[in-house]
Amino acid sequence: MDVRRYADLFLTESRDHLTAFNHLLLEWERDPAAPEPVGGIFRAVHTIKGMEATYIQGIITVGARTVVLLQIGRLVTSSERISLEAIQAEPVHG
Fold this sequence. Notes:
Blueprint: H1 3-30, H2 35-71, H3 85-89
Helix pairs in contact: 1-2
């Protein structure tokens, strides 16, 4: 898992949904009785929340694999860098 790729995707998608959220909030302010902006606001926030949960779970998975590989001596560390390449190439089975 390339965490940077997913971070960039998460940020891009979140910005798009926050932009939609802002537009819908202004629309709702203009017409408080309109149900459409409320539904759109809910969807935008819910989508960001779902993307965040998926992204965080991916980071947790990478972190857990790093710990396991360090513990069994299959991942060599240096003071400057930990290579996460092994995590992607070598799945850890329980």
